[in-house]
Each structure stands twice: as C-alpha cells, then as structure tokens.
Amino acid sequence: MTSKKIGDVVLDVRNISLRFGGVKALTDISFDVREHEVRAIIGPNGAGKSSMLNCINGVYQPQDGSISFRGQTFKHMNSRQVAEMGIARTFQNLALFKGMSVIDNIMTGRNLRIKSNLFMQAIRNPFGIGGAQKEEEAHREFVEHIIDFLEIQAHRKTPVGQLPYGLQKRVDLGRALAMEPKVLLLDEPMAGMNLEEKQDMSRFILDVNDEFGTTIVLIEHDMGVVMDISDRVVVLDYGKKIGDGTPDEVRNNEEVISAYLGTSH
C-alpha cells in the first residue's frame, strides 16, 4: 500500500445487534471507519458481513446499538436517507437494468442529485432551453467522466445485459460513483471474477479511494485481495467480532486463523 493520509472517524458502528426472530445475525458489533481508508469486513459464509452492510445503509434496522456518520447518530434510517447523507452501495447480486445502456444505467445514480423538475421545465419551455437542459448536460458530463475513469467508453451505448460479467460489475461500481458518495459500501465486488478481472477491479477500487478521495468499506472473500488493498480489516464469525486491525495484525490473530484462514496459513 502506498502511504496516504487517513483522516478522522467518519463512520462509527456501536454495539450493533440484529435478530431475525430467534436467530442472532449480529451480536454487539463495534468498529469505526476513518476518512479515506479502505476498510474490509471479512469472515466465513454466514458470518454476518452483508447483514452489517444492510444495517449501515438502512436496509435492516438493528434492535440494539447505533451508527454515527460524520458525527450524526441514527438508529433508524431508510436507504434513501442514507444515500442522501452520502453513503452509496453496490450489491453482491447485480441489480442493473439489463435492457438499458451503460450510460443510462450509470445516469440512474444521479437521481438524488437532479434538482430541476424536468416535467415542469418542459411545460414552461417546450424547446428545452434553460435550467433543466443545462442540469441534464452537467449530469451527463459527470457520467461520461466516470465512464472514462472505469475504461468502458467502448461500451457506453451497449445494453448492460450484453456485457461480460466483469464489465457489468464495473457498471455497478460506476452507478454507485455517480452518487458522489463520501463512503462507498462494496458487497463482494469481485465475486465470480477471474484473476484478470479481480486485478482490474482492485485497481479501480484503489483509484476511487485515491483520486475521488472516497472512503471504502469492502466485503470480499478473496483474502489475497483483502490483504493487498485494505488499510484495516474487521473479522466477523457467527455474527460476532473476533478480530480488528491492520492486515498483518489480522493475519497473525490466532482466533482469526482458526476461524477463517485455516491453520496452514
């Protein structure tokens, strides 16, 4: 990892517990995320990683604990409110509009930032000249910048469903970036990828962190990737936290080794 300036705590997760009926998905989980870092959450299948992301971005409402974002504490927030605060999310299972082009998919990420009422603007000015048109042009310009950044210019007009899986994951990342998030939650961004695709996605994640200054929280199964690109790692097992620290500290944590990495590591 190249040296970089890690800032103050931007996201503070405190004593989060989540239950579904009698099943405990998360038990008393606490960790923080610092501005401009890549923070990984790892653990075996069923450890509670995706449930943790779902609590952060408002999909699940934990029964106990609180989450603070930039000093503002919330217990119950819906996904739209979280997005408006500046937290974006990609999903393990792609939720793209397969029949729409790459550029139109990424444009959907600008919805929260569209201020003009385009319908009312059109009524007042059917020739499309004025604020609404200028605003849309500005949004498209931003999206084109993301397309260039992710090196998918050749596919900008292609329906997403026709793209290889690795490129679809890149479009999903682009749609999240279109929201201009302060914190980006990535749920297994490299699942199902071959080695070359993983290398490309790792590079893009580091570039997003570096060039956009975006703080990243990452769930990923590939331990090599996690150890290469993360600043700090929190480890979950059966919904409990069993490790937290730098990649080296986690790699040498006996409880983590026995639960996740295997004694051969």
Brief write-up:
The protein is of the alpha/beta class and 265 residues long. The protein is built from ten helices and ten strands.
Task: Please tell me about this protein's structure.
The longest helix is centred in the middle third of the chain and has 19 residues, at 131-149. The strands form 2 sheets. Strands 6-7-8-3-9-10 form a 6-stranded mixed β-sheet, with helices on both faces. Helices cover 37% and strands 24% of the residues. By secondary structure, the protein is of the alpha/beta class.
The whole-angstrom Rg is 20 Å
Q: Please tally the β strands and state the result.
A: 10
Give the integer mean of the pLDDT values.
Answer: 86
Give the helix tally.
10
Largest sheet: 6 strands, mixed
How far from one another are the termini? 21 Å
Quote the beta fraction: 15-25%
The largest beta-sheet arranges its strands as 6-7-8-3-9-10
What fraction, in percent, of the residue positions are helical?
Answer: 25-40%
